[in-house]
Amino acid sequence: VQLQASGGGLVQAGDSLRLSCTAFALDRAMGWFRQAPGKEREFVAVISRRGGVTSYSDSVKGRFTISRDNAKNTVYLQMNTLAPEDTGVYYCAAAYANPRTFCTPVEKTSYAYWGQGTQVTVSS
User: Tell me: the pLDDT tens digits for 20-45?
Assistant: First the structure.
C-alpha cells in the first residue's frame, strides 16, 4: 500500500487547510498523525474502513474533521481554526488489516503503512 499525502503549507493562525491522502488500496482504517520538531509523532484522527466511525485527539476535536472517499481511494483531514501548536509534519497511515468494520486504532503500532508526510506551518 503506497500512501501519498498532500495539502500542507504555511498559513496564519485561524486559517484552514485540507490535507489529502491517496492510496492504491484503501480497505483499512486510516489515520492522521503529526510530529512537531523535537517531539514524538502523535495521533490526530482516525476513520474506520467504511467511514462510519471517527476518533480525534483532544487537541483537535471540534476543529479538525477526517473523512474518506473510498471510490477515490482518498482520505481527507479538514483543519479549521489552525493554531501555531498545530505546526508539524502530518502523516497519513493505513492500519493493519482488521475484519472489524468499526475499528479505529489510535496507537502508532496499529498502523502498517505510512505516507511521506506533508509540512504544516502555522504562524501566529
Answer: 999 876 689 999 999 999 999 999 99
pLDDT category, 99, cuts 50, 70, 90? confident
CB 50 within 8 A of CB 67: no
Cα 110 to the center of its chain, rounded Å? 14
pLDDT bucket at 82, cuts 50 / 70 / 90: very high
- Residue 31 in grid coordinates: 489515520
What pLDDT is recorded for position 25? Answer: 67
Q: Is the dihedral of CA 120, 22, 1, 105 positive or negative?
A: positive
Sequence letter at residue 69: D
20 and 6 Cβ atoms separated by less than 8 Å = yes
Cα separation, 8 vs 90, in Å, equals: 8
The whole-angstrom separation of Cα 7 and Cα 11 is 12
Q: How far apart are CA 57 and CA 120, in angstroms?
A: 17
Backbone torsion region of residue 59, taken as left when φ is above 0, otherwise alpha when ψ lies between -120 and 50, otherwise beta:
alpha
